[in-house]
Design brief:
Elements: H1 2-6, H2 15-39, H3 49-72, H4 79-94
Helix pairs in contact: 2-3, 3-4
Length: 101
C-alpha cells in the first residue's frame, strides 16, 4: 500500500509500473465481466462494455480500500470477508433473475 501510494507521484520510479499494473488489472477484470455477459451469466440488460470497466475499477478500489483499512486497524479488519461480501453483492446485482435474463 505504501509503494502504491508513493507511485501516484509521476516522478516516482514505480509510477509507470503501478499505473500499468492497475490498467492491466482493470482491463483483465472487465474482460472477464464481458465474458460472463456473453455466456449469459449476467442479466441481459447489464451488457454494456463501458459499464464493465467502471465496475472493474470499483472492484479494485474496494480491494485497495479494504487493504488500507486492514493495515490501519492493525490487521483487525476482516479483509477476506470484506472482499467476499462485495463480490457477493455484485454477483446478486448482475445475476439474471429466474425466468428471464
Amino acid at each position: 500500500m505504501t509503494l502504491s501510494a508513493e507511485a501516484a507521484d509521476p516522478s516516482s520510479a514505480a509510477h509507470e509500473l503501478f499505473a500499468a499494473r492497475y490498467e492491466r488489472t482493470v482491463s483483465e477484470l472487465a474482460a472477464r465481466f464481458r465474458a460472463c455477459a456473453r455466456s449469459g451469466s449476467f442479466r441481459a440488460d447489464a451488457d454494456a462494455d463501458a459499464d464493465y470497466e467502471a465496475v472493474a475499477r470499483e472492484c479494485v478500489a474496494v480491494s485497495d480500500g479494504l487493504q488500507l483499512q486492514w493495515l490501519l486497524s492493525g490487521r483487525r479488519t476482516d479483509l477476506p470477508a470484506g472482499i467476499t461480501g462485495h463480490l457477493s453483492r455484485l454477483r446478486e446485482t448482475l445475476r439474471p433473475t429466474r425466468g428471464r435474463s
